[in-house]
Structure formats: C-alpha cells, structure tokens
Amino acid sequence: MTTEAASVPAPQEPDDTRQKEPPQEERSPRALARARRRHSAARFWREYRTHRAGVIGLAALVLIALAALGAPLLVGADAQSVTRAPGEAMRAPSGEFPLGTDQFGRDLLALLVWGARISLTVGLLAAFLSVAIGTVVGITAGHFRGWYATVIMRITDWFLVMPTLVLAIALASVLDRSVWTIILAIGVTTWPTTARLVRAQTLAVESRPYIERARALGGGHGHIMARHVLPNVMPLVLAQTTLVISSAILTEATLAFLGLGDPTVVSWGGLLQDAREAGAVSAGDWWYLAPPGIAIAVVALAFTLCGRAVESVLNPRLGVSR
C-alpha cells in the first residue's frame, strides 16, 4: 500500500509561464481590420505633421470650428437680435466693440463668430453632396462604360462648360431662400470635376489583374465597385473633398452677397451684403467689410492648405512642398 501510494505521481500545477493563446476577439478578421485602420491612421498623421503648411491650416480650422461651436457661450444668443443691439449704428472699432458695429448697432465680432456656423455648415454639407454625386457618377461611368458612360460623361461635359456660379444662381433663384437651398444649389452644380477625376482613377483600377480575378470568381458589379474600386479611389475623394470645401464656402458667400441666401440667418456673405446695402463702401466704413472678407479668405486658404497636404501624403509622387 505504501509503495503503491508513493508510485502515484502528484498532480502537476498548471504552468503559468506558458504563453496564453490570444482571445478570440484579437484573432478575428474584424479585430485585425481595426488594427490595420489604427496603424494606417497613425502613419497618415505622422506623414501629415511633416507638412508645416497643412498643420497651420488644420490649426486655423480647429480654432474657427471651436469658436463657431461655442458661439452661444462666447458671444451669447442675443448677438443676432436687431431689437436688442448693444451699441450705436456704424460705430468704428473701440475697446467695447473691437470690430465696430453694423447698421443696426450689433457687435460685428459677435456676428462674425455666429456667421462661422452657417458658412462652415454650408461649405461642409455642400462639399460632401458634391463629392458624393461626383464619386457615384465617376465610379459607375468608369465601371459600366458603353452607352451609359457616353451619356453620363456628355452630361458631365455640359455641366463643366456651363458657369457653375450662373447655374447655382439660377437654381437658388427658383427655389425658396434657405440654407438648404444654398447647399443643394452648390452641391448639384460643382460635382463634374470630381466625377472626371474619379472616373479616370476607376479606369486605372479596373485595368488591374485582381479585378479580372474577382470577375472570374463570380463577383458582381456591386461587389467590384464597393469592395475593390471604392477603397482605391477613396484617397483621391478625400483629397478632393478638402479642396471642394473651400470653393463651396466661397460660392456660399457669393450667393449670400447677391441676396440669394437666407435673410433670417447670419453668414459671412450675408454680412458683406448688409455692408453693401448700408453704403459701407462709399462711406469708407472698412470695419464693416474687412472682417467677413478676411474670414472667408482665411478659411478658404486653410482648407486649401489641408487639401494639398492630404493629397501629398496620399500621393507622395506629386512632390508638394512642405
């Protein structure tokens, strides 16, 4: 009995030094895809930071966006009120009103901060609408070809030769005067350039061998366009979006200056239109004209700098200066 008991091996303790298997979530394709996206985003930011002009433009946009989002806290909700204007009409800049007052006695600095909300919103939404239309048109025209591509590209050529501003003015004049009308007018008239660029990139992508393999394996049109073509044209679409935003903001300011914007909201173009109606040009009231114009130029330049930096990071062969 004693010999047999002694011959029985003692139970072994689990070896904690052995490497544990990673959880199932870490080995799943979805987790690997998220890790690749994080790595790509980190690499993109490292490359982007090397472009000084792009960093300056991004910093300017962040400051303007924070001021626009915090407008109710920074300047108050009554800054747009005509009946509760805090000062006298057309006062020059002073300690109380750093940028002077408008024709109703409202603080121009407060109006400038409030106007950033409308101008940035219209610029962003109109640019996204324009790029979305151009991307869909470009990918489908490059994929299907034939009579469909011929008809679509002839329509695109017609939009290209027509002045964009004239088409936007005509559309804004027919529809109701509102912010959404301005967004629609800009979005449906500025997409042809994006469509041309995306179609050229789509033709280049679909000439690669793996597209033929995808077709041979039974991939349909929707699968090829969504899973193979779209990811390859997205860098171009992203760079084009940042460039379209600046032109959309300028177009919104032009339409508002011509009196086609929403008169119930404050925008930078609307401030310029109010200054023209108040006779600020002939009276020499520069403080009524300069701040909105400078704000429009700064935002357009900042988006352009960001767009050039993004385009250089995504396509280093362009050789954009840093």
Report what the structure shows.
The chain is mainly α and 322 residues long. Helices cover 70% and strands 0% of the residues. The protein is built from 14 helices and no strands. The chain has helices at residues 2-7, 29-49, 52-69, 71-74, 108-144, 146-161, 164-174, 179-187, 192-206, 209-216, 221-257, 268-277, 280-283, 286-314. It is elongated, with a radius of gyration of 28 Å. The termini are far apart. Mean pLDDT is 83; it is low at 1-10 and 13-19.
List keywords for this structure.
mainly alpha, disordered N terminus, 322 residues, 70% helix
Quick overview of this protein structure:
The protein has 322 residues and is mainly alpha-helical. The chain has helices at residues 2-7, 29-49, 52-69, 71-74, 108-144, 146-161, 164-174, 179-187, 192-206, 209-216, 221-257, 268-277, 280-283, 286-314.
Rounded to the nearest angstrom, the radius of gyration is: 28 Å
Q: Specify the number of helices.
A: 14
What's the count of strands? Answer: 0
Order of helices and strands: HHHHHHHHHHHHHH
The first-to-last residue Cα distance is: 86 Å
Strand content: under 5%
Class by SSE composition: mainly alpha
Mean pLDDT: 83
Which regions are unreliable across 5 or more consecutive residues at pLDDT < 50? Answer: 1-10, 13-19
What would you call the shape?
A: elongated
Q: How helical, in percent, are the residues?
A: 55-70%
Biggest sheet architecture: none
